[in-house]
Structure formats: structure tokens, C-alpha cells
Amino acid sequence: MSQNQYNYFASVYDRMMDNIPYENWKQYLLEMLYKYGVPPCTDITELGCGTGVMTRLLANDGFNMTGIDISEEMLNVAKEKNIGNVAYMKADMRDFTLEHKQDAIISICDSMNYLLTEDDFTKACKCAYNNLSDNGVFIFDLKTEYFYKYELDGRKFSEDMGDFSYVWRNKYDEKSHIHKYHLLFDCNESGKHEIKEELHRQRSYFAGQIKEAALKAGFKHGAAYDAFTFEKPKKRSERIYIVFRK
């Protein structure tokens, strides 16, 4: 996991990801929080908060939100848009300590997929456990191998956004379970023409690995859902949601 993966991308992330239905995702999270007994207006921390879209949405619904990200560039964008009711901190999701225990910790938009080893994945789960109150819940999503292998592998996306254009190439390695995103930006900043590149890596995780990480972290209860439903994951699930409870 590298803090250098979001450099130029951070400044244009929201524009490139404007197809994400954040309001719908927030509604699903609210249903999940209600299902697991998280009270309203309580303390929630988001890991890998990025530009802070979800942290702000939940803050607007009355939750006391903290956003954590390892990328200073992403946090700078989040802070610029902050309306004052979200606390942001730069930290690694594998090693952070909050001032007080949280009733819920969440991580969406496949931030947990950026953890490239089972050890790192376990460390993040353990850190979440240590920062949760009794009966607190850790809710996160994961892109699946099915999605990487059948929906992304070998595909190329490109678009001209006016002040910049990009080419996004995808490659999945079945042996390592690592998916690589290669981003090539052709941008014009302050009248200067520049080419910028970023390489992002994510990993797919499987049921046994997720369960083992939960147990090592100390969680006693867990569940998995096909994204945006309360049904069990399917072979063709592209994204799943995991809930661990102390």
C-alpha cells in the first residue's frame, strides 16, 4: 500500500468518479448501521476516506465523522470541501489510534483492496477492532476476483475532460490475485502541458482469508453480503460488503 498512488489523480478524482451513486451507497450504509444497532448521531470513522464524499454525507445526517486517509493529496481535496463538521487525519489504516472508541468504522470504494498482503489486511482489521467500542462494527466493501477477472482485466478506458485527458489500463494476475491500474494523464496546468503517470495495485480476497483475518483481529461475529443487498454473495458478485462485530 503506497501513499504515492494518489498524486495528480487526487485533484481530478471526483470528476472522474462522478458516476458513483454516493447517495444510494449512503442509504445502504444507513440500513446496514440500523441493522447492526448503531445508534444515530454517534461516532463513525471512515478508513480510506479519499476526497471525503461519504464522510460529509454521513456528517450531514448527524453522525460525528472522522476521515482517515494515507494520501495527503486526497485529504487536501477533502479539507477544501469540508464544511467544518468532519475531522480529517492522515494515517495508515494498518496503524492508527483514535482519541476515543468508535461505534462504527467503515471503509468503502474498495479501499481495503489496496492492502496487498494477508498480513496487512489482518493489521487493518486488528486496528479497527482496537478502535471500536464494545459491540462496535467494522463495515467495509471489497471488489471481487470475478470483477477484476471478467469485468476489468485487459480493458482500457479513455476520456477527454477538457483540461486533461486520461487512458486507464487494467491487468489482473490470477496467480498473485493483484490487479493493476495504469493511469496515464495528459494535462494542461497553468498553460503547461504535462504527462503524468500513476500505477495503482489492488488485491482480491476470498472468504477463508477474510474469516481468518477477522478471527486474528479478535472479532467474534461476521457476515458477508452481495453489495447493496442483504443477500449472500454470489459467484458473480462484483462487490461484497463485510460486517465484523466485536
Structure summary:
The protein is α/β, with parallel strands linked by helices. 30% of the residues lie in helices and 35% in strands.
Topology (SSEs and partners):
Elements: H1 8-16, H2 22-35, E1 43-47, H3 53-60, E2 64-69, H4 72-81, E3 86-90, E4 102-107, H5 118-130, E5 132-143, H6 145-152, E6 156-160, E7 164-173, E8 178-189, E9 192-203, H7 207-217, E10 221-226, E11 239-245
Parallel strand pairs: 1-2, 1-4, 2-3, 4-5
Antiparallel strand pairs: 5-11, 6-7, 7-8, 8-9, 10-11
CATH superfamily of the largest domain: Vaccinia Virus protein VP39
Q: In the CATH scheme, what's the topology name of the largest domain?
A: Rossmann fold
Domain unit count: 2
Elements, N to C (H/E): HHEHEHEEHEHEEEEHEE
Gyration radius over CA: 18 Å
What's the mean pLDDT score?
Answer: 93
Number of helices, where a helix is a run of at least 4 consecutive DSSP H or I residues: 7
* CATH class category name of the largest domain: Alpha Beta
Could you give the count of β-strands?
Answer: 11
Low-confidence stretches: none
- Give the fraction of residues assigned to helices: 25-40%
As laid out across the biggest beta sheet, the strand order is 3-2-1-4-5-11-10
The amount of beta strand, in percent, is 25-35%
